[in-house]
Write the structure tokens for this entry.
Amino acid sequence: MKTTICLLAVLMFLPACQTTRTVTVVGMTDYHSHAVPFYSEGERGQGGLARALAYLREAKSRPDTLVVSGGDMLNKGVPTWSDEYECVEWPWLNGVVDVMALGNHDLDYGAEKFERCREGLEYPLLSANLVRGDGAAYFQVEGRPYVVKTVGGVRLGLFAVGGPDMQRLVKAENLPAGTRWTDAKEVARKVVRALRDEEHVDAVVFIGHQLSEDDEALAREVPGIDLIMGSHSHQKVELRVLPGTRTYYVSPYQYLAYLAEVRMHFRGKKLERVEGGLVKLDGTKKEDAETAAKVAELQRVLVAKRPERFEVLGRLTKPLSDEGVSTGAAEVGTWATEVWRRAAGVRAFFATSAGFRAGLPAGEVTVEDFYGAIPYRNVVVTAELTGEQLLEWVSLIESKKGTDGYSQRSGVRYEVKDGRVEGLEVLKDASEPGEGYERVKPEGVYRVGTTDFQAYVAAGYKEALSKARQVERTGLDVHELLKEALRKGSPRG
């Protein structure tokens, strides 16, 4: 009877007898050498490599599961672990991670050290648009710039590219000798075409390292990508379909505070549905005992060797949260930009949300806590903007809402209605904020401040500031200003 039903189903073009399969993809990204549990989202003791490895090993023990990494395993300067141990823990992921994308920070210590790190890996690295002089991809697996995995009878194609922002951030001298970047979208088109038409994969997964807005553009402009495992922007995004596409997207935040777990359901060779989301690695998740012991011993040695990084800078009576850092005024961003504004003597100050990677805890704040929250070194840049230019600048900020390019600020206030900035006001007196605000006049001239990253590197802002007058790179170090504020207990100690 079953044979007859199946035969009838085939003759009637019905899928009743097609095999259903589920493939699980578990993703980590933007680890940045955070082996030790850390302060995140208002709670201490989050994440940690021992928790992540326990979860990943358990996941890997289940059938039809792949583990992928979006890269950025290192971070020069922060935390201290990275400078001291570099890639000591990369081989711990052997047998767990199936494939890893190259991240911009993976080259922080130069190509020679990167290659030494790579030698200890049993899993491949990918970045299809980093090419040699002859145009061939620098990273290849069996002569191809992508990986095809057959899992539970399903063929998955996985690939990565380094997006435009990554290309800007990697210093030329840190790239492998003789390599260069090519256009990420064009390469992605060729790779997806090869995966679909030549490899005949059943689904395509992108694990590359680029900003979330570039991920969205890729999904819109390169058909055939089923799943994007977001990275680089450090965003916490539950699984969703990107607007105007059929591509699923998930982004597991940063530092192993979360992992992404996505289940792809197939009927025959057809991807029918995708489900899953983020997994929080908090105290409810067990640790791998062996890894925890290794991390604890290495951290003990590190603290003894670099005690200055674990000294207490100051105390906060209340935490400074980073909640909403890419969508509105986060407490840590408001505090920092106000400290910088006062020091620079300007009427308004702006700093990209990318510069804030965590909040600061209540109680004692150590040097390591501080750098974990605000890791990147910058100096203050001041400039004169007309009122019209200031409005354009603030409008640019709002156009980047929800991304790393959004900006924390102090000294300005406004409303957004129907996507337009209205009622823009700026402090009347830079030295006396108690005097209140005044409406920005198009013909007025206003001295403002920002970081040198936002002034000279950040897309959109650097072009806008190039039209400003009296642009000055000051000697004010953003880290030193904030550390001094913490030592003095300002503003909330």
